[in-house]
Amino acid sequence: MSNTEEPTVEAGQVEEEEEWVPDYDFCYKTIITGDPSTGKSQISARWSRDEFSEDYTTTVGVEFATKKSEIDSKVISQQLWDTSPHMIGEEGIPVPLIHRYCFNVFGAFLVYDITKPDTFKNIPERLDVLRTKGDIHPKTKIIIMGNKSDLKKDGGDQVDTAEAKAYADENGFFFAEVSALDGSGIQDAFKTMVQAIWDEPEFDGSKSKTYELRDEIESQWP
């Protein structure tokens, strides 16, 4: 056989499929939700690829992003599921669909637009949907995330930082103000999420499960 010839498979032989081996130790599924135009997809792009685009349109269905980090010499693969804003928080969406989206979730980012107070007022309703229809674990880590901090100004019609942080503190959530435009605060918020999941004793058994993202998609979205 010459050096350029490919090996052949004889009749009756079956090539063994190479077993997939994950390049991480733990996999954490997190979700991001909030009102339309709060910048969820831009946050995802800034976190995972350090990109920003003004051309993003409202998400239809579900989009995914992944990024790896390291804690205590262990590699963590964090998945971020970015859903259509109409899936979480609106009437008429089948409960099984919401439950599938929230299946095996360790953390949730609830996003509002700092310049639009109504998007903050809707946060409790979206959280209630995650808990009642999504049936998320009671220890699921929550970050209340105010986006567009680059547009903050003194006075005017905007979400008060102290009020938003007080809401987070009262409910035992984390709080962050970020800017998808300039990237400020985003990486720190996601590091906070991963560390919080890592530190949660009730997740010790389940968080060790590793799987391919495609397997999760195929099993939850037939």
TrEMBL record:
Gene3D superfamilies: P-loop containing nucleotide triphosphate hydrolases. One of its GO terms (molecular function) is GTPase activity. PROSITE patterns: RAB, RAS. Transmembrane segments: none annotated. InterPro entries: P-loop_NTPase, Rab_GTPases_membrane_traffic, Small_GTP-bd, Small_GTPase. It comes from the Eukaryota. Pfam families: Ras. Belongs to the small GTPase superfamily. Rab family. PANTHER family: DRAB11-RELATED (PTHR47979). This is Uncharacterized protein.
